[in-house]
Amino acid sequence: MRLTILALALLPVLAEDNVRDVWPRDVDMPPGLRFYARSEYSQRLTITNGYDTLRIVHQDTDDAFANAPTVLNPNRLFPWKVSGGLDKVRGFQSKTALAVPKGQAVRFWSERVEAGARHPLPRASWSFPVGTVAADLLSHDGKLFEVRTLTKTAKGWHSEVVWGSGAKVRGYTGHPGKKCHECHDKVGSGSYGVRIRGSDGIFSFWPFEGESFTPRTDFPVKHWNSN
Q1: C-alpha distance from residue 153 to each of 12, 17, 30, 162, 220 (Å)
Q2: Which of 121, 139, 153, 183 makes an SS bond possible with 115, Cβ 3.0 to 4.6 Å?
């Protein structure tokens, strides 16, 4: 136990502002990597009063349909609520960061998808350019213990644990028996009603300004048809 405590004490503290301040020194940091707040929003696809309806919902908002039981929002349930393997860990923190290649942008568009209704319903989707790197920095009691990355390639996303402290965190199992893509492939999916948050393989990044479909300005985000 003494060795574990000493090891944790030597780990970098997870800061709020600059990724470089806490990124492991023995691992190359992707250029342009910046923290962003994890998304608290998802989309609700329904037919309301005969009209196709798309609206934004908070992750804590459950779905209610007329003359039917309330449907729980999947974004506040296992395994979507927290990063994989951390649902039984107390005192953990997950900080997400993103690096979009210079001169490129996250592109969004509207499309119709199957949602268990009588016809496909509209949904906002987005795609990250090749070369994008997403990172998840995991800490316990304020001390970094693991860094995961997703890198967008021409063939899809490449997932990797690029650094680990070796510290034993009680309750942490990773995601036993599963590979990262088995969950990340389900972003944006779901049945009629609230969808699992995210698009294009990343759960946590929301390309819009809060509860609107206005493109955010702290990262390069553009409509698919814009220059």
Answers
A1: 30, 27, 14, 17, 19
A2: 121
Q: What angle (nearest 5°) sits at the alpha carbon of residue 36, between those of residues 34 and 143?
A: 80
Contact present, 194 and 201 (Cβ < 8 Å):
no
Q: What is the DSSP string of 168-197?
A: --TT----TT--HHHHHTTTT--SSEEPPS
pLDDT of residue 175: 62
Q: Cα(29)–Cα(36) distance, rounded to whole angstroms?
A: 16
All residue ranges of the chain with pLDDT < 50 are: 1-16
- Identity at 148, one-letter amino acid code: R
98-149 per-position pLDDT tens digit: 999 999 999 999 999 999 999 999 999 999 999 999 999 999 999 999 999 9
Between the alpha carbon of residue 223 and those of residues 22, 73, 110, 213, the distances in Å are 33, 28, 9, 11
- β-bridge pairing 121-127 and 106-113: antiparallel
The string of DSSP letters for 51-79 reads EEEEEEEETTPPB--TTSPPBPPGGGSTT
93/137 Cα distance (integer angstroms): 8
Instruction: Identify the burial level of 97 via C-beta atoms within 10 angstroms of its C-beta, where 0-12 means exposed, 13-18 middle and 19 or more buried.
Output: buried
Q: Please, what is the average pLDDT of the chain?
A: 89
205 close to 36: Cβ distance less than 8 angstroms = yes
Report whether 60 contacts 73 (CB < 8 A): yes
Query: Residue 3's pLDDT is what?
Result: 32
